[in-house]
TrEMBL record:
Organism: Streptomyces olindensis
Top enzyme class: transferase
GO MF assignments: transferase activity
UniProt entry tagged with the keyword Transferase: yes
Residue spans crossing the bilayer: none
Domain of life: Bacteria
Name this polypeptide is given: CoA transferase
Coiled-coil stretches: none
Gene3D superfamilies: Crotonobetainyl-coa:carnitine coa-transferase, domain 1 (3.40.50.10540), formyl-coa transferase, domain 3 (3.30.1540.10)
EC number: 2.8.3.-
Length: 420
């Protein structure tokens, strides 16, 4: 079983990581690139799946060229962040030989993941109908921007989906312009949905012997992830707007200035508000008719905010976080990522792990620093066995003997490099 210990600088280090993972025995042919698909397959690889990353000749996954920043070897940190525990093979899907080798690879896999534009894989003879007919136990996961119907031709970029999917309409200040999230959040959410769908389909396959098509798209994933905001519209017809860091249904639930830097207060009930008032030195606030209940506080949000800013101005964010947490009030400073990882380490959470060193390049012999898998399993924990692969590093190892595959009847002359 894989266990973890702390390195001298406080980072978690995977040791003894040759035990069985929860998904050991599951082999995935990963034709996806950029973020949603690679994130999903990395999560599954961490849990024991054998993931074969299929990349195009020359440049490979788009994110290999998305820099700065880079590591010591000049490799994009974007690519490194979602491609550990995988093996890379290079296939030119624009050629008959490349597609024949792809078919041979798929025949040896339980799962296929792809995020080409809808229709591209079918034109290459690698569509779900062809492959499920040939391999009925296959789980075929297709990730798109806007589905395979009327939205099939719309490019699926995270920024675009945040805009047309409504997320930007509720992000930013009320008097400012719409703002995107600071990370490609829709891609990440879609990757999570893809991994969930794959696991559900594998469960069904194991019970019935039948594989199936799993389809996820960025727009649908975002609409689901909008949760309370989407429900407000679906149930009550309310079209929410931008409130900055405030919450439409809870107060105080936002950031406030202090004597040095902002603090976040997430006061979710009346007991917490009473504790907040007591700790800030004005217990009478909890008995004020305008602030007695959460509904009252939402209705008088502006007055409450002005009062809290005045009270919080007498101390710094770290001071208030300490005393408020001690009083049972959810509070914390607005951290940078360096502070966020340090906070996780203080709590005993492995924010950063060391993955075995790359086999070649300037970083050879230097363990790769990676963000830890977010799911803790007591019997089959995440394993960190392989660093993100060099382009085509495992082509010969994986595809040796596949050149003579004679079960392929695909067509020649199609460009396999369309993007989502």
């Amino acid at each position: 079983m894989s266990t973890q210990h702390q390195t001298p600088d406080g980072r978690a280090d995977a040791i003894g990581g040759t035990g069985r993972g929860a998904l050991e025995g599951v082999r995935i042919a990963d034709f996806s690139r950029v973020l949603a698909g690679p994130y999903a397959t990395m999560l599954l690889a961490d849990l024991g799946a054998d993931v074969i990353k299929v990349e195009r000749p020359g440049s490979g996954d788009d994110t290999r060229a998305w820099h700065p920043p880079t590591d010591h070897d000049g490799t994009s940190t974007y690519f490194l962040g979602v491609n550990r525990n995988k093996k890379s093979v290079v296939l030119d899907l624009a050629t008959r030989a490349g597609r024949a080798r792809a078919h041979a690879l798929v025949a040896d896999c339980d799962v296929l993941v792809e995020n080409f534009r809808p229709g591209t894989m079918a034109r290459l003879g690698l569509g779900h109908q062809d492959l499920l007919a040939r391999h009925p136990r296959l789980v075929y996961c297709s990730i798109s921007g806007f589905g395979s119907g009327a939205g099939a031709t719309i490019p699926g970029y995270d920024l675009l989906v945040q805009a047309v999917g409504g997320l930007m309409s509720v992000t930013g200040t009320a008097d400012g312009e719409p703002v995107k999230a600071g990370v490609a959040l829709v891609d990440v959410i879609t990757g999570l949905h893809a991994s969930l769908g794959i696991l559900a389909a594998l469960r069904h396959r194991d019970a019935t012997g039948q594989g199936q098509l799993v389809e996820v798209n960025l727009l649908g994933s975002l609409l689901s992830a909008m949760v309370n905001q989407a429900s407000a519209y679906a149930v009550a017809g309310v079209v929410p707007g931008r409130l900055g860091n405030a919450h439409p249904s809870i107060a105080p639930y936002e950031t406030f200035p202090t004597a040095d830097r902002p603090i976040a207060l997430a006061v979710g009930n009346d007991k917490q508000f009473a504790a907040l008032a007591e700790t800030l030195g004005e217990p009478g606030l909890a008995d004020d008719d305008r602030l007695r209940t959460n509904t009252d506080r939402v209705a008088h949000r502006t007055e409450l905010r002005e009062t809290l800013i005045r009270l919080l101005s007498t101390g710094g964010a770290d001071h208030w976080s300490t005393v408020l947490l001690a009083a049972g009030v959810p509070a914390g400073p607005v951290n940078g990522l360096d502070e966020a990882f340090a906070f996780a380490e203080r709590l005993g959470l492995p924010g950063i792990v060391d993955v075995p060193a790359p086999a070649a390049g300037a970083a050879a012999g230097r363990p790769a620093r990676q963000v830890a898998h977010p799911v803790a399993l007591s019997a089959t924990p995440a394993r960190y066995l392989l660093p993100p692969p060099l382009l085509g590093q495992h082509t010969e190892e994986i595809l040796d003997g596949f050149d003579g595959f004679d079960g392929f009847d695909g067509l020649d002359g199609h460009d396999g490099h369309a993007s989502v």
